[in-house]
Amino acid sequence: MPSLDALIVLAGILYGFLHPGKEDKARILKTGLRWGVILGILVGLLGLLTGNVLVAVTAGFAGVIGFVLVALVISIEFIIGTFIGDFLEGVLKR
């Protein structure tokens, strides 16, 4: 069974190879972090809807921090893939 990390890097390689020119890595990282914050806030709100204040605070804090960290790791893995894809594009499309 393939690992999720390998699939993310492979997706980054394909993205970097199939899109002409160098990719804007800072934009990719900002977008990933933005989605992490949005999903973390949604998880926190979902915790509030459960009715238990302690669960809501824990889910809110851990949810935002957890999703931001996960989004950061996924974004970095994807950016590593785009570096490889851009390199392959330069080597193979000459």
Query: How many separate helices?
Result: 3
How much helix is in the residues?
over 70%
CA-to-CA gap between the ends?
35 Å
> pLDDT below 50 for ≥5 consecutive residues: which ranges?
none
Indicate the overall shape: elongated
Content of β-strand: under 5%
Mean pLDDT: 79
Biggest sheet overview: none
Q: State the order of secondary-structure elements, H for helix, E for strand.
A: HHH
Secondary structure: number of strands: 0
The class by helix and strand makeup works out as mainly alpha
| Gyration radius over CA | 17 Å
Task: Describe what this molecule looks like in 3D.
- The protein is an all-alpha fold and 94 residues long.
- Helices cover 85% and strands 0% of the residues.
- It has 3 helices and no strands.
- α1 crosses α3.
- The model has no long low-confidence stretch (mean pLDDT 79).
